[in-house]
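It would be a great kindness if you could assist me with a short task in structural biology. The full record is reproduced below for your convenience:
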Amino acid sequence: MDHVSATRARPGLALVLTAVALAGPLAPAAAAAAPPGTEAGVELATDRRSVSAWLPYWGDTEAAYQDALEHADQLHTVSPFWYEASADTVKAEDGAGNEGIIDGLHRAGIRVVPTVTETAGPAEMAALMHDPRRRAAHVDALLEMAGSRSYDGVELDYETMATTNDRATLERVRTGYNLLTRDLCARLHTRGKECVITVLAHVRGSGAAYDYQHLGKIADTVRIMGYDLHWSGGEAGPLSSKDWYEEVLRYATDTIPRNKIEVAFPGYGWDWTKGSKGRAGHLTWKEADSLRKQTGADYHFDAASGTPHFTYRKNGADHEVWYQDARGVAEQLPLLKKYRVRGTGLWALGFEDPEVWAALRGQ
């Protein structure tokens, strides 16, 4: 889903790290781990497991953690949704840096690469990223966070900066983000840590804030959010579709090495109220499946998109729910096979249809 909106609906921020003040020494640098130098579209052999997943800090964190452990044989990376950056600070969400979770995931053979979102708008972020001093301070703050625990890297999920239709501002965001990610990835690599960049799908006018070709060169992994084709603020419809994935993957594999691409599937859905101007309500797969059963709604599957949906009536209003389940993921995975992309992701642990793991294993 819209990761940024998800965090803003949740309470609690703690532990402020002021970027300008973060000039102190970091932990000793590990051996450099530069990303493979490959050409976009080249399929490379890899022995890594093929699934990453986000771990939300809200809701039942323990259940999400146990979900990760239960599927440790498939997961290569878990990204706890723990940090939020403003222009000059990096803040930790409630429960961030839980060493019990970090150590438990490591014992299970899962890498821990925490997610950082950002709150500054497009113009503010563009100004920061084009200012060498402020950009360096921002990178210092991220590196300080990365060294605060036994993390294996950092994931940037900067989406707020991409929310503009002003072409000039968008171009400054794109070029500024190239500078920021160049600096961050290089310094992470000198410390032996991964640099993961999450992006909106570059399709149908979306995702223009991200220079896929540049990110494919400097990042270890580029995670593409393969959802919200229809979103909470728009018309009802599938969160993703086969033809949409076709467009997403065609562009991605033309610009990013295939071994660096991850396409994340949704474990959630949206509940639209017909005739309402309000935003749709968020439902995890578990909540959607429970709601369908409680209301006695018929399960429908849209073969064209590869997604389930149903309708129900409540308090005199008609509702339309679209979401994703294991059947839908299994229907859409052949698109990844067609483009020889092995990397998959899941938003988010604890949200999903339990059978989705069997579907992902079959890829």
Remarks:
- Residues 7-39, 41-47 have pLDDT under 50 and may be disordered.
